[in-house]
Amino acid sequence: MKVQSRLVDKLSILKEIFPINGVIQVGVSDSITNRYIDWEVDKVFFVEADGKVVGKLKQELKHRNWLFSESVVAQAEQERSFYFANNPKQNGLLKLDPLKKYWRNLKTAHITSVKTVSLQELVCNYDYKANWLSIDCMPAVEVLKGYADKLSELDVITIKAILDAPEDDLLNSTQAEADEFLSAYGFENISVEDDLNPHVGNLIYARNNFSKDSGALVSQDVFDTLEEKYNQLVEENKLLIEAKQELATSLEVFKSDRFEKEQDSRNYLEQISELGNSQQALAEENSQQFKLIDEQKSKISKLLESEQRLQTELQETKATLEVKVKEASQLVDIEKSYLDSQKEINSLNAKTNSLEEKISSQRNHLADIEAESKRNQVLISNYENEISTLKQQLESSQKLSEQMTLQNETLAQMADKQQKLFSSLESNMVARFQTGLLNSVKQIESYIGVQNYLETGNLAMDYHGWPISSDLALFLLNKIERNQYDLIIEFGSGTSTQLFAKALKNQEQNKLGQNVSRLESIDSSKDNLAATYLDLPKKIVTFEHNKKYFDKTMATLTEAGVDELVDLVHAPLVDCRVNGEDFLYYSCEPMLQQLKHVFAGRVAKILVLIDGPPAKTGPLARLPGVPLMLNHLANHQLDIVLDDYNRQEEKDIVTNWKKVFEDRFISYEEEEVICEKGAYFCRINP
Fold it and tell me: Which of 86, 438, 566, 682 is most buried (CB neighbours < 10 A)?
């Protein structure tokens, strides 16, 4: 792409001036990752809000020593609204309504709450160092404000910004705001490269030694500085040559001085030899001094032995005195022990007297207890008589309770039989009521059919006993009349097939009746309506897997004279895999692919009725219909009707469809149709 190429070319030149020591990349795309691979960058820290993109990058680039973080970065940590667009490239913290002036078809798919984090805190948590920063999302200025304390470490910054004047709804997203903020930190805008949208650009910032002229990569001042440094290096090289010459001269002087110093060294050795003779005489004098010292040591040794003997005698005397002191101390202890024993004896005598008094008191108390015991025995005897009487009464009560239990069981059995009888009566009444109601409806339809035959000679269609009911048929007819569909697709044939064909035939007859003169004079190759009719003459495509019903439907269409409007396809059930699960579904993909080519380059209005296959073919049997339609006709307006919505299985199918819509960022409208068997209606791409 030309725009991207100019940006990459300028960044490639810039990295030669500021070699990359590490890159922080906020917002990721395949072109960005390929750029760093081509540049062979060792250190890259990717920050991306989409977890699916982060997971894909980790898998594809797991062999590289790069960092990845699934985070939403802003100026500070807080709860924010995150906007998902129908174009995932515009997902972010900016409201999408103000951006519609730049992207007309931009829509909000849904909004969720996220917790943001500042880029500075995120990078510090990973202890990551970088000198390049690239922000490929908006609002970029808010991300820069959350990295303000670390901007001094950067050499190059690239951001995506809106080139128009600042507006309240697009704060922190414009070039003017970025220029003002980064200039305070010593950065200048050196280039503005247009994006695919002329109002959005990729801005390149570097330190102040770059020109403000967006057409020049490097200023003249920088080239002058580089030339001055080169001249300095040349001068320094000349000085080095002169220094080498001076060093050679100094080396010659050094050699001369060295010879003189060697001569001095020889003289010094002769002086040392003379000094050695003097040292020998001094050694003989020292020998005599050592002899005198040895004699003094012998005298000191004798004095030490005498002192040691005196110390031994002193220790023995001390030991004798300690023994005598211990004996005296023991005598004192014995005397104290005797006095303590006398005190204990006196105390024991006092306790003995007290115990004797207590024993006497206890004896008197024991006599009272014996008297009380006799009275208690009389009371116990009376209690035993009462207990015997109570036991007899209890046995009588137990017998009475057993009789009541038997009666309760009998009553419970009678109540159960009565409940079953009521249930049976209710079921019979409901069945008779439904039978009567269905018979009444059948009689009314039969009456209408007879009247229609008498008036037109055509038999009316039967809406009971085959797929759709009359109330759903009326709902579908209203849709066909109001929306003028380009195509009707039907999964499962029957009454609805004939109904659709007759409705379209009536529409075409009305159009031809109103425009006969115009159609006769118009060249079909130049008229859009006529061209549409010619490239798809059969406006109804119906898939039927059962050959018996296929033949029956074909005979009914032929008999009614509407078979030229229906492309009835015999599509036997085949294995089909949707969202990782296996199903049996119509072999319809070749026809859907053909329809995709027919409507290529146009947006068609298509009605889709999903009334098959039967539930007995497997769980959630009708689920694959919508995913298969989206695989081939997702860019058209699809009005989808699901029959039998009163059943829980159909409600589960709709829940799965909604998840498919959300995963594919498809907008839709829905309603529940109140009818005999229930129906669900939704419009995709309204």
Answer: 566
What residues are paired with 585 via a beta bridge?
574
Q: Residue 171: name the closest of 207, 144, 203 by CA.
A: 144
CB under 8 Å to 567, separation ≥6 — which residues?
538, 540, 541, 542, 591
Question: 């023994």: which residue's tokens?
Answer: 323
Helix, strand, coil tally for the chain in percent (to 5): 60, 15, 25
DSSP state, residue 174:
B
d(Cα 410, Cα 319) in Å, to the nearest integer?
Answer: 109
Residue ranges of E strands in 28-151: 44-48, 67-70, 73-74, 79-85, 108-115, 117-118, 132-135
R_g of the chain, CA atoms, integer Å: 54
- Half-sphere exposure (Cβ direction) of 414: Cα atoms closer than 13 Å: 6
Is the link from the previous residue into 613 a cis peptide, with omega within 30 of 0? yes
Q: Which of 64-68, 198-202, 482-486, 654-658 has the lowest mean pLDDT?
A: 198-202
Q: Dihedral sign, CA of 28, 29, 33, 36?
A: negative
Residue position matching structure tokens 């990359």:
20
Amino acid at 540: I
Q: What is the pLDDT of residues 497-509, one digit of tens each?
A: 999 999 998 888 7
Q: Express each pLDDT in 426-459 by its tens digit.
A: 556 645 554 555 545 444 554 454 455 445 545 4
Q: Are 459 and 453 in contact (CB under 8 A)?
A: yes
Alpha carbons 23 and 43: distance in angstroms, whole number: 6
